[in-house]
Amino acid sequence: MTLFDTHCHYECAPDEITASLSRAAEAGVGEVMVVGGSQTLNAGVFAAACPALKIYRAIGWDRDQAENAAALPALDYTGISAVGEIGLDFYYPGASREKQISLFSSQLELARKLDLPVVIHTREADDDTLGVLKEIPSRGIIHCFTGSPGFCRKLLDLGFYISISGIVTFRAADNVRESALVVPDDRLLIETDAPFLAPVPMRGRENEPAFIAHTARFLANLRKTSLDNLAEITTGNARKVLDAK
Ligand SMILES: [Zn+2]
């Protein structure tokens, strides 16, 4: 069995990153994707190194960079597997809808030009996310999915893979569990979104890729399958969407 954590972030020192990834390898994780989105998160992507497992890298500019989009430097995508994370988040009052949509759209256009998949964050922005994706056909991952089963189906119709985080283990997350059951085997992914959102029974601790095993086990029970089978389908899907050779 080999697990693939399709989404984690690092903002710590290189030796701490290597130690965290080594613990993941010991916990059965064979592959991880380290994801950027800001200057510091993108730096963490390039700093990630560990001989014990395979590392994929995603870089890009997330919604928090939308206010200063004009000042964002161009990034070097050599050796990069995906553009992300990018997307829309209208959870916090005062978020500029127009500026977020503009940056999101330009990142999708860039991914098309580079022929790379995207890693999309979407929260409280269902209609705008669907609107932009219909205008700019794209492929890739909807990460840390927390929307309704109906929204999930619409994203599946557009061809996206749906990544389920440790939120699925939280007591109050019935809608995430419902959505996780809507995703067919061939579109399902798992992620930690570390250092955030540690799954049960690790809540309260800083999350890390090693903890993906808890989410995988929970999801296997929910979908009435074995951990081995869940690991096999999610790892296979992740390799496929990231064009891993
Ligand atoms: Zn993230």
Tell me what you see in this structure.
- With 245 residues, the protein is α/β, with parallel strands linked by helices.
- The protein contains eight helices and eight strands.
- The protein has an eight-stranded parallel beta sheet.
- Helix 5 runs parallel beside helix 6 and helix 7 crosses helix 8.
- The mean pLDDT is 96.
- Bound molecules: zinc ion.
- The site of zinc ion (ZN) has 5 residues, from loops.
How much of the sequence lies in strands comes to: 15-25%
How many structural domains in the coordinates?
A: 1
Beta-strand segment tally: 8
Oligomer: single chain
Structural class by secondary-structure content:
alpha/beta
Distance between the termini: 19 Å
Strand order of the largest sheet: 1-2-3-4-5-6-7-8
Largest sheet: 8 strands, parallel
Spatial extent as radius of gyration = 17 Å
- The percentage helix is 25-40%
Q: In DSSP terms, counting alpha (H) and pi (I) runs of 4 or more, how many helices?
A: 8
Instruction: Label the overall shape.
Output: globular
CATH topology: TIM Barrel
- CATH architecture call: Alpha-Beta Barrel
- The residue ranges in which pLDDT falls below 50 over 5 or more consecutive positions are none
Identify the CATH homologous superfamily: Metal-dependent hydrolases
